[in-house]
Amino acid sequence: MTVRRQAVVQFERRYGRRGQDVLAQLGEAARANAIDPGDVDRVAAELGLPRAHVNGAASFYSDLQGDRSERHVRVCTGAACFAASAGAHLGECEAAAAAGSASSERVYCLGYCYGGPAALDGDTPRVGPDVAAQIEGTAEYCDPEIPYAVAVDDPVVLARLARGAEPWASWRAVLGRDGGQTVLDQALASGLRGRGGAGFPAARKWQAAAEMAGQRYLIANGDEGDPGSFADRLLMERDPHGVLEGMALAALACGATHGYAYVRSEYPRASAAMRKAVAEARAAGALSQDAHGSGVDFDVDVFDGARSYVAGEETSLIHSIEGLRGSVLARPPFPTENGLFDRPTVVNNVETLSALPWIVEHGGDAYSALGTDESKGTKLVCLNERFQRPGVYEVEFGTSLRTICDELGGGLRDGARMRCVQVGGPLGGFLGPAALDVPLSFEGLAAQGVDLGHGGLVAFDERVSGADLLRHVWRFAADESCGTCFPCRIGSQRGHELADRAGDGPLTSQDAVLQEQLIETMGEASLCAFGRSIPSPVRTLMAIYAGEI
Ligand SMILES: Cc1cc2nc3c(=O)[nH]c(=O)nc-3n(C[C@H](O)[C@H](O)[C@H](O)COP(=O)(O)O)c2cc1C
Ligand code: SF4
Ligand code: FES
Fold it and tell me: Ligand 2 centroid to 423 CA: how many Å?
């Protein structure tokens, strides 16, 4: 098998060393001061790793950059907070932080898109229109719970949260039987597709790993980088045992004996809730060697990310756990052949895994009876603060976006007029109000030129101009490109420059042509779905605001 790994990794393989403590140790150093060469030397020496390995990570992840005061404020500049204040909160929050001798930085999404604009003061949330005053200390702190509701008779993913279904019941039930095959059979029958964005059939991934020999890993992807999505935060914070049970069932199906729950650093509470649940599940014998006396071994470690949107991509995420830069790898080989620590690895989204206990309990046929031909089952969708009733909703695939926006979300607040909805995060695309009759499904949205992504719906009203939105899209691309391939690394910077140059007016016709050439190149030649997807938001936005941008 040809595996293209960095030289430092080849070296470590030879000497049997692993870098999974690199991000934690660098994170510790970055909290005290800006990371300097001495920190890199020390961490490399303590872990017995080449300096290049540690330095690569130190210079990549956003959490490891810059100087911080003892008090540090992360201010959200993600799409939902941008929609909430048209960006006005950014300067106000930064000024309030500076007045309190705190350092501050802009981050993309803290998972409070239903109540923003949002900031994290240390690890404490400040949320709402008066977020700057909350940072200043002149307004009461606001930390709203995530609102959620079910719009299906029998919720699948929210079964435990909304209906009190008992966690670990499916795990106990399958352990006694031919568990792995049972889970695989039911997942195959269910037609479950991954919820992380690509929509890959879950059972096929597990089958591919199951056919491999030796140590295998299962990773729950809790990076949830899409601004506008907070469903995984809800699941990890409020239903962590459901996430762990889903991981255990998937591990049984693919033969993994160890798992990692990867949680983004912008979700400190999710990380704490997952760690607590792991300890409880170990104490109860659910996660252990010989779980419940079945002869099945499975245990989980919780891993905190260090802030990088691209680290949600599976090969980048694997590098991140290995303590490397979050560079994306070309595939094949797929992680199911060669992944974490060079072993076969399955990466699944948190929501995908959370559907599994219900599927195993009720059967794959019951699940596939829900939804559309190509999109089976239910989906969590997230509505941002602009809606009258923002929050997480579990809906059946095939429900129209209009029903979701108008009936569940209640339309926009304060009688505002909707200009567009961003679907599926920064890589998904935009729909105008006239296009909302489209059914929520992988195929329905693709026919409109947008991607489902992780199911975030961010509504924009008239306070945000098309020019502002275009700049926002390109700024995100430029800020978060991992830099591995040049069409995306350079294209995202050039696109940002074009949008900046246009100011509040339309692009010149020459720049419009240049922009089209840029996105065509990015779409054709980028290494991963990040660069390849940028044409979709740019083109759909240009169509909606035709004549304005
Ligand atoms: C730039 C980029 C960012 C991604 N971010 C996430 C993420 O935050 N969460 C996630 O589950 N998948 C993310 N993905 C998709 C993962 O690569 C992978 O397909 C997914 O975790 C697999 O899980 P699933 O099969 O359950 O969907 C991202 C992909 C790309 C290209
Ligand atoms: S497309 Fe962008 S994010 Fe993906 S590998 Fe290339 S530079 Fe990195
Ligand atoms: S909290 Fe700001 S976009 Fe999600």
Answer: 21
